[in-house]
Amino acid sequence: MCNLYSITTNQAAIAELFRVVRRYEGNLQPMPGVFPDYPAPVIRDAAGEREMVLMRWGMPPRTGGPPVTNIRNTSSPHWRGWLKPEHRCLVPVNSFAEYAPEPNPETKKKDIVWFALADARPLFAFAGIWATFNGDRGTKSKPIPGPHQVYGFLTTTPNAVVEPIHPKAMPVLLTTAEERDVWLRAPWDEARALQRPLPDECLKIVARGIEKEDVLTAAIVAS
Fold first, then answer.
1. pLDDT tens digit string along 99-157?
2. From 190's CA, which of 68, 101, 154, 182 has a CA 20 to 30 Å away?
3. How far apart are CA 98 and CA 188, in angstroms?
4. pTM of the predicted model, to two decimals?
5. Angstrom distances, CA of residue 211 to CA of 40, 73, 97
6. How much of the chain is helix, strand and coil, in % rounded to 5?
7. What CA–CA distance (Å, rounded) separates 173 from 195?
């Protein structure tokens, strides 16, 4: 389950690649480590124009429990309404991480393994869905009342790059303009074909260690 990713590309570059018309009003700081319940940029279709907004990571659960960050079972009635085009979104990403299955013999801790399309961490998107949640978010000691706009993203069978690290699933990655258009606008019967692993040759491990932020991403984008 992917519960950590980075987005460090600046707002102007995100807007250009994803053809955003309405941009988030404010400074979008680099986020070399995005964790569940963090606010992060999301792109959705609004009356035929793409807009960038900040949402909290984690969809409402089917029953009590923590927010749901990753969605695999798209045949579940719980997710069916949010799979319509009006609730789909693009989640901008430079890299994502999974914990190694076994501890590192030297550190005695599980390595954090970062994946990207290439060493330079070019921008891509997760296939996301979003909703409005009226309950509290934040911590139990400092709850933040709703309503909140929240998001999660789809996962699928891992490819040969991710499988040795996380054999259960990998995020659904959208790497072309055509895929992003289909995801935002097509009927589910067409869009569901995108819930598939990225080809092995299109993904690589770009960092491995104990860092919970892809600090190299931030350095590359800032340079």
1. 999 999 888 899 999 999 999 999 999 999 999 988 778 777 888 887 999 999 999 99
2. 68
3. 28
4. 0.93
5. 20, 31, 10
6. 20, 40, 45
7. 8
